[in-house]
Design goal:
Blueprint: H1 3-37, E1 39-40, E2 48-55, E3 58-65, H2 81-99, H3 102-105, H4 116-139, H5 146-165, H6 170-205, H7 212-238, H8 251-273, H9 280-300, H10 318-327, H11 353-358, H12 360-369, H13 383-393
Antiparallel strand pairs: 1-2, 2-3
Helix pairs in contact: 1-2, 1-8, 2-6, 4-5, 4-6, 5-6, 5-8, 6-7, 7-8, 8-9, 12-13
Bound molecules: heme C.
């Protein structure tokens, strides 16, 4: 396909995905906040709580009926399409970038030499399986104990990330772990929360009292969504930052620490909005978790061999030029020789000494401190060559 189509397709899908996700996360944070700020009032029946808000030049009084109001309102807004569109656009974006261009983004032969078809099949299958196991755990007897369920789910997600780390490039593993979590969130809305809501409404219309089990199950799933939200966004962004996946071995730990950090930040807000004080310790814990993740990726990332090599002159030595031109320039030149690339990726050109000198820091970041480039080491850069680049880029 025309490279311009690839680029534009990727940009438009990402645009849709980010906007839909903002609308979804925005409304879900809003309702979590609203739920926590509801108060009982003397003049209202016990099952009704209310909260006041001020926004956009007016005051709003929001009321919540624990299960459903005594009669169906004429106008009822369902909050679901933000979630569905986030998932649909995310699935398309995943296929567009990671499955259709898997040699650049997903497959790392040093991890596992998958064919593009197998890589895509494991990804799509893993995401579906990821949901089925989660849903099964929630419906099992374990589901009746919220704390035990959360502990098991935490271990489960870390295990999922280890599975993906054994199959894919680091960025592919983090992104797929994020995709499993995002699918759990959407599945919760699509397959549990909304259907339960519909059942309650149907009972209401028949003049019956809605079964509170529906509401409780929905609340459990939306609490999971609440704790997952921040880690998902982190995992979706992390694939753009190679230092977060510099070490394949550290990926499960990075995922675990991100889950902890994201959940702790939500704990802070959930308590604060419920009027139960400011749990500043939660921020401390989250910061410590992120610092630990950063520390681990640095310690476990590819060893920095620069120490053993003397720093060379500022100019680009012929040996460096030869390596970069040989291993990088087929993609990173004004008219790339690599099929499917219409222009140098991210505008990074590496085909002549001046350009190479300008990119010294980026070369260090992407080919020495991490092995993000060449993608999946597709051009077969050797450890020896990385040592030469390490020596030349030291201190840049
Ligand atoms: C097979 C093609 C290919 C080869 C070979 C290749 N790259 Fe890349 N490079 C890419 C692609 C694709 C991207 C865009 C990645 C993205 O979108 O995150 C990229 C991005 C980059 C970036 C920008 C990263 C950013 O996020 O700003 C740098 C720097 C880079 N490559 C350096 C190198 C170096 C150094 C080499 C040689 C050691 C190299 N590349 C070899 C395809 C290649």
């Amino acid at each position: 396909m025309d490279p311009y189509l690839w680029e534009w397709g990727s940009l438009l899908l990402r645009w849709l995905h980010v906007v839909a996700a903002m609308a979804w996360i925005g409304s879900s944070f809003f309702f979590m906040h609203l739920d926590a700020s509801l108060r009982a009032r003397q003049d209202l029946p016990p099952e009704v709580k209310s909260a006041w808000q001020v926004h956009g030049g007016g005051f709003y009084e929001m009321r919540k009926w624990a299960v459903a109001p005594p009669g169906m309102p004429d106008h009822l807004t369902w909050h679901k399409w933000q979630a569905y569109w986030t998932w649909i656009s995310g699935a398309l974006l995943l296929a567009w970038i990671y499955y259709a261009q898997s040699e650049l983004y997903l497959i790392d032969p040093e991890v596992r030499d998958l064919s593009p078809l197998a890589a895509a099949a494991f990804g799509a299958g893993g995401i579906v399986l990821g949901w089925l196991v989660y849903d099964g755990l929630c419906r099992s007897p374990l589901g009746r104990n919220d704390a035990a369920l959360l502990a098991v789910l935490f271990a489960y997600v870390v295990l999922v990330s280890a599975g993906f780390a054994a199959l894919y490039s680091g960025r592919g593993a983090l992104l797929h772990t994020g995709a499993v979590l995002a699918t759990i969130m959407t599945g919760n809305v699509f397959l549990v929360i909304i259907p339960n809501q519909r059942k309650a409404v149907a009972q209401l219309l028949r003049g019956e009292t809605p079964d509170p089990r529906y509401g409780l199950e929905g609340k459990q799933r939306s609490t999971h969504n609440n704790y997952i939200t921040l880690p998902v966004v982190f995992l979706m962004l992390a694939n753009h930052y190679p230092l977060t996946w510099a070490s394949q071995a550290a990926i499960p730990a990075v995922v675990a620490l991100t889950l902890v950090a994201g959940a702790l930040v939500r704990v802070f807000y959930n308590l604060r909005h419920a009027g139960r004080g400011n749990a500043w310790w939660a921020w401390g814990g989250a910061a410590a978790a992120i610092a630990a993740a950063a520390f681990l990726t640095i310690r476990l990332g590819p060893a920095d061999p620069a120490a053993e090599w003397p720093t060379q002159a500022a100019m680009v030595p012929p040996a460096v030029e030869e390596i970069v031109v040989g291993r990088c320039a087929m993609c990173h030149m004004p008219a790339p020789a690599w099929a499917g690339l219409g222009m140098p990726p991210k505008g990074v050109v590496l085909d002549h000494p001046e350009a190479i000198a300008r990119q010294a820091y980026a070369i260090r970041l992407h080919a020495v401190l991490t092995h993000a480039m060449p993608p999946g080491n597709i051009t077969g850069m050797t450890a020896e060559e990385r040592r030469v680049l390490a020596a030349w880029t030291a201190g840049r």
